[in-house]
């Protein structure tokens, strides 16, 4: 069987088995065609049906999470953990608490995580978890009770050599602390069971900054390869959470002017450059809406219930750092009209397949999240190493290692794309490079 037919058969089977899992099928449809060339060159993987085995998660846990609010009323949410692939190491991937969480979203994130983790060069497999619980508007006590209930079930399936969760949307330092506390009570102390912990109990320096910094480092190395820098560039960013804040901080530090940021209520345009310290105060300290930004920065404008990506103004680089599918085909065309040269995903799959096609036709360099935002999981793996050694490394050491890892990821994706005569096709480069390492490990282990 040739590679094209082999991939088509797998794609049709997954669509039949997983009907209605929109986000997951989108991720699969983006990935599968890009590895055809690799399979043609390496038919042993077709003969062993490695891709057919890999496409199925090793195991999925779904469980109820009952919790009590401050008025004494009982609620129940759904919890998930998708342990997708452990060929190159223990499952690694964040926990997301958001109303949009369902099995499809969890599978899509875990599937992407396999190849993202592979690209880091570190020994970590792919997984993801979370719940449709919404921490917004909840008291600290309510969030604590939910986290304790969630961990009561999750702790049966995780461990420092088995599955090591971290944070994601809706799971920050507060939630990680409550989750870790409950794990410790149930299973005794083990620092390596969660990453993204506060520094006070074996968290890592630079973990908070890692995803945002890493995305900017990836673009930095891309620009350097083209004898260019961030200096003087205008950058549009979506989001105002952890990833967006530190992407803005690093881009500004490297000489760019960041002109936008957003939350679910709307976005801010500041032509003088986003005041990152003010965004940190509003979002990290006060948990305010981004609309409050313009009360302090009089030269800025707030656009209510609007997307950054509908805004028409000239800029050079787009960093979508909010959530999946935030840039559609029409919005991608607006980015092209705005003169954007590079789109790098700080969030997971923020561009639809149709948007990516627009970029490809317009010679916009598109850097997919599995490569561009791998900095977060890379530093999580470095946190695991520090926990295992009972050591704490300096910020400068971890940040330097992060920059080097992102350079390695960029060069791996670039070189793989060039090998397949697909210059600047970082989707193909990332997918083949990530898949090759995992597939080889699976084949050598007997596809168990």
TrEMBL record:
Belongs to the Glu/Leu/Phe/Val dehydrogenases family. SUPFAM superfamilies: Aminoacid dehydrogenase-like, N-terminal domain, NAD(P)-binding Rossmann-fold domains. GO terms for molecular function: glutamate dehydrogenase (NADP+) activity; nucleotide binding. PANTHER family: NADP-SPECIFIC GLUTAMATE DEHYDROGENASE 1-RELATED. This is Glutamate dehydrogenase. Substrate binds at residues 92, 113, 116, 167, 380. Gene3D superfamilies: Glutamate Dehydrogenase, chain A, domain 3 (1.10.285.10), Leucine Dehydrogenase, chain A, domain 1 (3.40.50.10860), NAD(P)-binding Rossmann-like Domain (3.40.50.720). Residues 204-446 form the Glutamate/phenylalanine/leucine/valine/L-tryptophan dehydrogenase C-terminal domain. Homohexamer. GO terms for cellular component: cytosol. Keywords: NAD, Nucleotide-binding, Oxidoreductase. Pfam families: ELFV_dehydrog (PF00208), ELFV_dehydrog_N (PF02812). The active site is at residue 128.
